[in-house]
Amino acid sequence: xxWYRLAADQGSASAQFCVGLxxxxxxxxxxxxxxxxxxxxxxxxxNNTEAMTNLAxxxxxxxxxxQIARDGVKAFMWASLAATQDNKKAQDKLxxxxxxxxxxEISEAQKQAREWKAAYAKKALQKKFGEP
Length: 132
Fold this sequence. Notes:
Number of strands: 0
Helix content: over 70%
Low-confidence stretches: none
Shape: flat
CATH topology: Serine Threonine Protein Phosphatase 5, Tetratricopeptide repeat
CATH class: Mainly Alpha
Mean pLDDT: 92
CATH architecture: Alpha Horseshoe
Order of helices and strands: HHHHHHH
CATH superfamily: Tetratricopeptide repeat domain
Oligomer: single chain
Radius of gyration: 15 Å
């Protein structure tokens, strides 16, 4: 866990995902959905689809209740972002969420996903070519 944490602290998305998973499962780190969420968000912000999928699960699950507020819109947003990148688990979660959410919630989640994609694309261009 020490090496994953060092790599995660240096910005490695895959290491951030692994640290999040360790906290989610309580294996190699104290079990904490809040810590898992924090690390998954860092990895997801770097387009890590596994982290996106686990965020969707956490925001839609009874299991995280008490530490993470259920939020179907956030769950749908993260699932849709990962699903569009061929993540099978996210595609399955998205089907579940389509059946569980209202059309208004789905519309809001789709809007948030579009906004996230635009912001991610802007950050990626700035990283590649420098600040405008």
